């Protein structure tokens, strides 16, 4: 950190530069800030996600599926069906009214396992219990977003800005306060990309330590524990939602390409084929462990008898080359075929459906909850009545600026070939581009919660370039613009926070947040 100020001419150093030097120049002070900055940001994120999380004490949006399924899975090992009127019975404390008959669910079990664990700890009859796992994982995602850019750039300021922006973004806050699966998916995706960044850093150090000489073939590296860890995290993402498969594919592609390019820079003559050779090893390190993690997430279903489709093919087991496969795995395969058919054919109309091409424009955010009380009703003390809303919309400034920054980062990557840009763009593409392949599917804007970490990273890269005074702009002017942008982002999040968290507000205050007619 002490070498950075010397790179800035004395006549260009601003008050911000001197302030940064004061905080970080002393090694002991810098060490304190390396711990203090992520701790404070993570604590702020936790508080924003936890406050009033148990209100409303209702199953909102798709919690009607995930909460009850998670609880029955926690108790039985598999999700169970529930009788008519189960939602009303559940919220009044009758949490064991499930039938014990396996329920058809279309997502893997891991996310429900986390939700069920939170309910076991805090009570299945408590809305806080339903949502506490999302709070924990949403907060952990903020910390992971600190660690990823810290590894990529080595900059405490950069990492703090990126994670701070995620901490105050609306979609991250809302999805950390409702019991859906996407927060768990997002955490494991970011974790996997952080492990890839650590693997890449270790690979660069390994090549730098190698004696430079031109050879026909290079070494094959098996000792890549961070790549194995990335496989574990990506397998966990897939065990939450199948969209994690695209992350595994994107990581594999990134690793093969970057390994091949590293061999070219090292003077390996047959670098393309040598990259393929290393790619096969990387596949062995990445994919099998991801498959093991995914299969392990189904252990409750496999080692019990009551799950949906658990004995579907017992009467007519597979013949021929598949006859050696144990019957439970044959049943699991058939269940997966049914799940795949459901996902591919899902096109049920929904008022808040939003195709993926609309997502960058923020056209149709998802309303999770809306309720209105008259004055004096249910404790409402506002003269014009109380409106409670939970809208899963990003901080609009951060979202649109993040989309613009992603385009900027792509252009910068084409111009300068910076590998850090490539990793951020890889993560963003993995969680967005595949959805464009299903224009007829019923999907929602809140799926973009997995995009937000990479958008704030792209935005932070753009803000860093602006702070350096691009073109004829001075550093002081660039840093002033960055300060204004960050202040505006914080103020806008404060303005939106009540309608992200269901706080009672006047109806007209809620109306002020509907900037586009499609946001209602």
Q: What's the gist of this structure?
A:
This protein has 520 residues and is an all-alpha fold. 60% of the residues lie in helices and 3% in strands.
Description:
By secondary structure, the chain is mostly helical. It has a domain at 16-180 and 348-519. The protein has 19 helices and two strands. A two-stranded antiparallel sheet has the order 1-2. Helix 3 crosses helix 5 (110-122) and helix 11 (244-265) runs antiparallel to helix 16. It is globular, with a radius of gyration of 25 Å.
Q: What is the secondary structure topology, with strand pairs?
A:
Blueprint lengths: L14 H10 L2 H24 L12 H14 L9 H6 L18 H13 L4 H27 L2 H12 L2 H6 L6 H28 L15 H16 L3 H22 L5 H27 L1 H4 L24 H19 L20 E8 L12 E7 L3 H21 L2 H14 L19 H16 L7 H26 L6 H5 L9
Antiparallel strand pairs: 1-2
Along the chain, the helix and strand elements come as HHHHHHHHHHHHHHEEHHHHH
Number of E strands = 2
Strand order of the largest sheet: 1-2
Give the termini distance in whole angstroms.
Answer: 48 Å
> What level of helicity do the residues show?
55-70%
Oligomer: single chain
Number of helices: 19
Poorly predicted parts: 1-7
* Main structural class: mainly alpha
Shape designation: globular
Mean pLDDT: 91
Q: Estimate the strand proportion.
A: under 5%
Reported for the largest beta sheet, the result is: 2 strands, antiparallel
């Amino acid at each position: 950190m002490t070498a950075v100020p010397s790179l800035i001419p004395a006549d260009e150093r601003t008050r911000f530069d001197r302030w940064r030097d004061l905080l970080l120049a002393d090694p002991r002070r810098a060490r304190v800030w390396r711990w203090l900055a992520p701790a404070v940001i993570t604590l702020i994120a936790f508080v924003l996600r936890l406050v009033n999380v148990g209100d409303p004490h209702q199953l909102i949006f798709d919690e009607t599926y995930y909460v009850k399924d998670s609880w029955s899975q926690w108790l039985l090992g598999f999700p169970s069906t529930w009788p008519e009127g189960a939602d009303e019975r559940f919220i009044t404390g009758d949490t064991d009214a499930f039938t014990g008959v396996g329920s058809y669910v279309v997502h893997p079990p891991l996310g429900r396992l986390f939700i069920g664990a939170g309910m076991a700890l805090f009570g299945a009859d408590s809305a806080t219990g339903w949502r506490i796992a999302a709070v924990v994982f949403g907060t952990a995602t903020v910390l992971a977003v600190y660690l990823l850019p810290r590894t990529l750039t080595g900059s405490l300021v950069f990492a703090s800005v990126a994670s701070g922006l995620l901490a105050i973004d609306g979609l991250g806050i809302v999805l950390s306060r409702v019991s859906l699966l996407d927060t768990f998916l997002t955490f494991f995706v970011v974790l996997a990309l952080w492990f890839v960044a650590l693997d890449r850093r270790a690979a660069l150090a390994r090549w730098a330590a190698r004696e430079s000489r031109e050879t026909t073939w290079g070494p094959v590296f098996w000792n890549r524990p961070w790549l194995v860890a990335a496989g574990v995290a990506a397998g966990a993402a897939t065990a939450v939602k199948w969209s994690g498969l695209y992350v595994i594919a994107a990581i594999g592609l990134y690793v093969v390409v970057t390994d091949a390019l590293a061999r070219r820079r090292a003077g390996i003559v047959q670098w393309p084929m040598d990259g393929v050779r290393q790619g096969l090893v990387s596949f062995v390190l990445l994919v099998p462990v991801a498959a093991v993690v995914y299969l392990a997430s189904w252990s409750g279903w496999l080692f019990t008898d009551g799950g949906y489709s658990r004995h579907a093919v017992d009467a007519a087991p597979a013949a021929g080359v598949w006859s050696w496969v144990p019957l439970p795995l044959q049943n699991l395969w058939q269940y997966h075929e049914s799940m795949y058919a459901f996902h591919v054919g899902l096109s049920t109309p929904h008022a808040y459906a939003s195709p993926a091409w609309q997502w960058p424009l923020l056209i149709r955010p998802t309303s999770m909850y809306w309720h209105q009380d008259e004055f004096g009703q249910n404790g409402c003390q506002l003269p014009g009545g109380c409106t409670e809303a939970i809208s899963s919309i990003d901080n609009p400034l951060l979202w649109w600026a993040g989309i613009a920054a992603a385009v900027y980062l792509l252009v910068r990557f084409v111009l300068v070939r910076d590998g850090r840009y490539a990793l951020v763009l890889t993560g963003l593409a993995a969680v967005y581009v595949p959805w464009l392949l299903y224009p007829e599917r019923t999907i929602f804007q809140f799926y973009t919660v997995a995009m937000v970490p990479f958008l704030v990273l792209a935005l932070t890269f753009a803000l860093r370039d602006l702070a350096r005074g691009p073109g004829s702009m001075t550093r002081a002017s660039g840093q002033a613009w960055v300060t204004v942008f960050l202040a505006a982002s914080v103020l806008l999040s404060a303005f939106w926070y009540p309608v992200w968290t269901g706080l009672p507000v006047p109806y007209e205050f809620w109306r002020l947040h509907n900037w586009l007619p499609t946001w209602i």
